């Protein structure tokens, strides 16, 4: 493969990485403890795992 071919592949790979980052910014992980006293929500996975902890009341 010549240098121009490798540069093209590099640009293609960089675009795929950016697309993946954008998709991961929309991921939301929402979990709750078995006793329902703790709820953890993770969002913006690519933005340093913004973590939100909140107390959940039993109903």
Strand and helix layout:
Blueprint: H1 3-24, E1 28-32, E2 38-43, E3 50-55
Antiparallel strand pairs: 1-2, 2-3
Descriptive report:
By secondary structure, the chain is an alpha+beta fold. Helix content is 37%, strand content 29%. The chain is built from one helix and three strands, in the order H-E-E-E. It has one helix at 3-24; strands at 28-32, 38-43, 50-55. The protein has a three-stranded antiparallel beta sheet, with no helix packed on it. A hairpin with a 5-residue loop joins strand 1 and strand 2 (38-43). The longest helix is centred in the N-terminal third of the chain and has 22 residues, at 3-24. It is rod-shaped.
Please give the radius of gyration in angstroms.
19 Å
The number of strands is: 3
Largest sheet: 3 strands, antiparallel
The portion of residues forming beta strands comes to 25-35%
Give, in order, the helices and strands.
HEEE
Task: Write down the overall mean pLDDT.
Answer: 77
Structural class: alpha+beta
Shape summary: rod-shaped
Whole-Å distance between the termini? 64 Å
User: Uncertain regions: pLDDT < 50 for 5+ in a row?
Assistant: none
Q: Which strand order do you get reading across the main beta sheet?
A: 1-2-3
Compute the number of helices: 1
Helical amount: 25-40%
